[in-house]
Design goal:
With 221 residues, the chain is an alpha/beta fold. Helix content is 42%, strand content 21%. α3 links the parallel β3 and β4. The protein is elongated.
Length: 221
Amino acid sequence: MALLGLLEDEIDLREELEAYLSMAGHRVLCADSSAEFFSVGDGLRFDVIIVDRGLPDADGLQVIERVRRESPKTGIVMLTARGSSEDRISGLQTGADHYLVKPVSLPELGAHVSALLRRLPEGWRLDGNERCLYAPDGTRLALSAREFDLLGLIVRRGSRMASRREVAEALGWDWLSFDQRRLDTLVSRLRRRCREACGQELPIRTEHSRGYVATGAIELT
């Protein structure tokens, strides 16, 4: 399951694209302006973003320039009504991998997204049969039942935060009498084990005193 960013200010088209890409099995985070995109996407690692050029608060070229600078491996599709040769060249030179001119068929857009995903390195994978976490480099980290349930809840929430209470109750603890330090210890130990096993940071962000959110795509199998 890939994490996609969709930046499109035309509401009907945005909803149509979101529905299609979600049906294809992706998690889609939508925004209608560059300000909203960088706000809701802060700390997240997108696999692919789809960007309109004519945004209400910025030129889409500014968006892809920033994304390319901050996240070199993210796939970028520019989807715009501007179809001149100069516009195409400008988009590709700025950092877009693919430049599509509206209107474009949904299957064609999906094919471009799939092509970009094929070139991305293998990501994180949470395996339910083996109850383990696989890192992008293939390292296998065996998980306790509570570690697996913790990650499973966060992954299923996608880009939405899982509150501390939701996590605690999902792990079988009574929230009213729960010592939250137990949850902090569980998460801290899991982060440390991950670093020691593969040298990479677990793609989970702690929202101080509130909960946890995935900062990148973790496939649940």
